[in-house]
Design brief:
Elements: H1 2-32, H2 39-57, H3 59-85, H4 90-112, E1 128-132, E2 135-138, H5 139-161, H6 163-173, H7 175-180, H8 185-210, H9 217-232, H10 237-254, H11 261-265, H12 277-282, H13 293-304
Antiparallel strand pairs: 1-2
């Protein structure tokens, strides 16, 4: 029971961190049709900026300043980069954002070096919120859940209940009509891209203290974030949320399972023959392949449902 409850809470925290990061990517794609490969790099920049700003004005002000700076960086990327290559099609946009990954990574390494930075949980949140079976649940993780839940509610209210949200959604499907009504469509797209980068920066500012602020953090989070977006369905915020929780739970529960797939099949009367490649693969403990499970699930959903769980676009 202790392992079950601990894995459940840790999976929820990690899943909501994935959602904080993946929601910005989903927002950009759903509104602009741009799959931003550099999104995880902006997440890394958000963590480093939050660390740097916190050295001068404290942790909590850094949670506001760092995402705003990431949003400004995103606006600059859209205005002087994506907008110029947009007329060349989505392939040019993908290549542009792919190149940004290496530029941002090298820039971070040149500015802050190759070693992890001492970005830590603030003393105000560095205490156990409650105990279960002798284990502590840190208050900072509850703070992460609160921020990510508030972000989910804010995005939903913005897109569904405000005039700005209606304009943003209309600009994607009917840009000429929105322009005829007096709205500046390029400014709308810049706002959307900057907003997505702001969310990535917020995820970095929160997650950098939870995990580790170092130059490889984008490489660690980037692949799993794209798995979340594809599995949930490109363009679907609800699908992104469900996929984030599912992936978070799978990875945290899998690492504590010592049994193999063969062991799970044995009660159903399935006995594998010895000395075959399939037997060797299926007898590997699930905990050892936990990091592969999300990618296996992504391949499976692409085979049987290319749009993802709740996708509105073909992947």
């Amino acid at each position: 029971m202790e392992v079950l409850l601990g894995s459940l809470l840790n999976g929820l925290v990690y899943g909501m961190l994935l959602f904080m990061l993946a929601s910005g990517l989903t927002l950009i794609f759903s509104m602009m049709g741009v799959l931003n490969f550099a999104h995880a790099s902006v997440y890394m920049v958000g963590a480093y900026l939050a660390f740097q700003v916190s050295q001068f004005i404290g942790f909590f002000p850094a949670l506001i300043v760092a995402p705003l700076l990431c949003g400004a960086i995103g606006a600059a990327i859209e205005i002087w980069g994506l907008r110029r290559v947009h007329h060349n099609g989505h392939i040019a946009e993908l290549l542009f954002t792919f190149g940004l990954v290496f530029i941002i990574q090298r820039g971070v390494q040149m500015t802050w070096g190759m070693l992890p930075e001492p970005y830590r949980v603030p003393a105000l949140l560095d205490f156990p919120l409650f105990q279960f079976y002798g284990a502590n649940f840190p208050a900072y993780r509850a703070f992460m859940l609160l921020i990510s839940g508030g972000m989910l509610l804010s995005i939903w209210l913005l897109l569904k209940k405000t005039r700005i949200g209606l304009i943003i959604q209309a600009a994607l499907t009917h840009p000429n009509m929105v322009s005829a009504l007096g709205h500046n469509v390029p400014v709308v797209f810049t706002t959307v891209f900057a907003g997505g980068c702001l969310l990535a920066g917020l995820a970095g500012a929160i997650g950098g203290a939870y995990q580790s602020t170092e130059p490889g953090m984008a490489d660690a989070m980037g692949p799993i974030v794209f798995v979340v977006v594809v599995f949930g369905g490109l363009g679907s915020l609800a699908g992104c949320f469900i996929a984030s929780i599912v992936m978070g739970m799978i990875q945290t529960f899998a690492v504590v399972i010592d049994a193999s797939i063969a062991d799970l099949l044995h009660p159903f009367g399935v006995v594998l023959s010895a000395d075959t490649l399939l037997t060797e693969v299926l007898t590997v403990p699930i905990g050892r392949i936990a990091s592969l499970l999300p990618f296996m699930m992504m391949v499976a959903i692409l085979l049987f449902r290319p749009r993802g769980l709740m996708g509105t676009r073909d992947t």
